[in-house]
From TrEMBL:
Molecular function per GO: branched-chain-amino-acid transaminase activity
Catalytic activity: L-leucine + 2-oxoglutarate = 4-methyl-2-oxopentanoate + L-glutamate; L-valine + 2-oxoglutarate = 3-methyl-2-oxobutanoate + L-glutamate; L-isoleucine + 2-oxoglutarate = (S)-3-methyl-2-oxopentanoate + L-glutamate
Domain of life of the native organism: Bacteria
SUPFAM superfamilies to which the protein is assigned, alphabetical: D-aminoacid aminotransferase-like PLP-dependent enzymes (SSF56752)
Summary of the function given for this chain in its UniProt record: Acts on leucine, isoleucine and valine.
Species, as recorded: Phaeovulum vinaykumarii
Listed CDD domains: D-AAT_like (cd01558)
Protein's recorded name: Probable branched-chain-amino-acid aminotransferase
Family: Belongs to the class-IV pyridoxal-phosphate-dependent aminotransferase family.
Length: 286
């Protein structure tokens, strides 16, 4: 069945969902995006994703092309029109189509491009990897300096995924000055000395919405959290490692650069946090 896609105020079958070749998203990667997961037809962590979207746009000097209520309505309508039960909603907003290629930003009144589509992932919450854990490699982080803005410049993360694939593993953690920044599309954590350790927020990582929720739930469950950079050596020597993202929730990491983490099986902290995250965020899903 063809998906129904939202393009600039219109609902169109995916075959007809098109934007201009002059769109700045296409020519300059001048756009931002969000991925919101859907479980049982409901949106997880929606307020966080909507708030980060507004921040990303603001940091790039773009406004919100529609008001908050309308944006939520579009998300809901998209779920309904596509009978989406489990999966994701992808949203992208670009600086639009100025009618030609030019490095300078177009006039502010140029209409932005707004696209939303669904990705169906039946059984998303029961991903088998949660039971076996992920294997990762480490790679250099050569991305730009504003990784806190969720832009569509995903070439290096895509290359990182390909390096992982070539190495026969699931993903890559990026490393800068010896310290882990984040995964190609997720935030990175270790558990050591009884503490959950994850890089502090700044311009060098994306401020994960799942990260914020998981750290809140961890603290509420009296788990100790330390927000600071950690090295690859620390990660390899840790008791556990895991990642978080909207599409994977909490996922254990059991191997780093060929070395087993802890026992080499998913750890109890990651497993518990996954359970808590799914339970609590489903309660708050809208
Ligand atoms: N990626 N760090 C990076 C570089 C990411 O791309 C993502 C999300 C995260 C986790 O953020 P959140 O918890 O808000 O999903 C961290 C999405 C899922 C993607 O690109 O598909």
């Amino acid at each position: 069945m063809s998906r129904i896609v939202y393009v600039n105020g219109n609902w169109v079958p995916e075959e007809e969902a098109v934007v201009s070749v002059f769109d700045r998203g296409f020519l300059m990667a001048d756009g931002v995006y969000e991925v919101t997961s859907v479980l049982g037809g409901k949106l997880l962590d929606y307020p966080g994703h909507a708030a980060r979207l507004e921040r990303s746009l603001g940091e790039l000097g773009m406004g919100m092309p529609m008001d908050a209520d309308d944006l939520l309505e579009v998300h809901r309508a998209l779920v309904e029109k596509n009978d989406l039960v489990d999966g994701m909603i992808y949203l992208q907003i670009t600086r639009g189509n100025p009618g030609d290629r030019d490095f300078a930003f177009p006039p502010a009144e140029t209409p932005q491009t707004v696209v939303l589509f669904t990705q169906s992932k039946p059984g998303l919450a029961d991903a088998p990897k949660a039971k076996t854990g992920m294997k990762i490699i480490t790679i250099d982080d050569i991305r730009w300096g504003r990784r806190d803005i969720k832009t569509v410049q995903l070439l290096y993360p895509s290359m990182g995924k390909m390096m992982a694939k070539k190495a026969g593993v699931d993903d890559a953690w990026m490393v800068e000055d010896g310290f882990v920044t984040e995964g190609t599309s997720n935030n990175a954590y270790i558990v050591a000395g009884g503490k959950i350790i994850t890089r502090n927020l700044g311009t060098d990582i994306l401020h994960g919405i799942t990260r914020a929720a998981v750290l809140r739930f961890a603290r509420e469950a009296q788990m100790e959290v330390e927000e600071r950079p950690f090295t690859v050596a620390e990660a390899k020597a840790a008791d556990e490692a895991f990642i978080t993202s909207a599409s994977s929730f909490v996922m254990p990491v059991v191997e780093i650069d060929g070395a087993a983490v802890g026992t080499g099986a998913p750890g109890s902290v990651a497993t518990r946090l996954r359970e808590i995250y799914l339970e609590e965020s489903l309660k708050q899903a809208i």
